[in-house]
Amino acid sequence: MQVQSMYFDLLFLFSHRGHLLPNLALNKTAVQSSNGDNIGFAFKAIDGNRDENYQKGSCTLTLSQSDPWWRVDLARVYTVGAVVITSGAGFENRLDGAEIWIGKSANFSDPDGQTFYFPCSSIEGRYVTVFLPGSEKVLNLCEVEVYYGYPLPNVALKGEATQSSTLSFATASKAIDGRRNSFYTNGFCSHTAEDETNPWWRVDLQRSFTVTAVKVTNRGDCCAERLDGAEIRIGNSLENNGNNNPRCASISHINAGKTYTYRCDGGSMEGRFVNVFLPGQKKTLTLCEVEVYAAPAGRALSDWI
């Protein structure tokens, strides 16, 4: 089976009691089939840094070779529920056709190994291998995360977005396209008209969810302060375009190009609509990604995950 997407952000992983689960691969022992240079060593993919810029020194790289691979030893057997891969910026296609194997042996071609999509059904294993079949292939990974249990999905990806106004090509849907690319000129951010009063952005999740976390990525090339004072509001009402729904959290400041996580007061909040509302005059609202991690309303998190 082939890897279907090169970037999966499934940070919020919970056990049946709702506790945040650890990344099992973090700072364990990693090896790879070859070293492409004196920077891209295998351990760089389990250092806890998702930075996609290879030149910043937190990604792996093999030589161009036949069937390159990378492997992490989790030190003992775990029941693995999800694997999260961050690839290098500009090199996503290098992972086309890659396979992921989980097994109890370091020999990933043995019967214990399995190839699976993200996320996967629970599979027991100590070794997680990323294998790229073919000739003249280069394997480049910026982070590999391994989690016990099941992830809550980013339900915003299947939602419909709208906003108070739109500047040029920066439609509301750009903030739920699955990309955290924070440079506005690259075309992956939403943007309202400049100097608006009380601008807002909203995603319709299509049904009511129990929201446990919202992640917001701010613009990276300029103007990070524009988002200061924004409010995240969640509910089932469209009164005042959804901006009268209960407040989940307030955004004091997000550094340029960074992604911050917001949890609602009380741990979760139910609603179909998630708004980012920026009160005040002469305001401009730019969002490079909004992610909503949630389970269907009316179902316990333990039933969903």
TrEMBL record:
InterPro entries attached to this UniProt entry: BG_Antigen-Binding_Lectin, FTP1, Galactose-bd-like_sf
Give the record's keywords alphabetically.
Answer: Calcium, Disulfide bond, Lectin, Metal-binding, Secreted
The UniProt entry's GO biological process terms, in alphabetical order, are: regulation of cellular defense response; regulation of complement activation, lectin pathway
Q: Which GO terms describe its molecular function?
A: fucose binding; metal ion binding
Q: Which Pfam families match?
A: F5_F8_type_C_2 (PF22633)
Question: Where does the protein end up?
Answer: Secreted
Oligomeric and partner information: Homotrimer.
Q: Tell me its family.
A: Belongs to the fucolectin family.
Name this polypeptide is given: Fucolectin tachylectin-4 pentraxin-1 domain-containing protein
Which organism's genome codes for this protein?
A: Oreochromis aureus (Israeli tilapia)
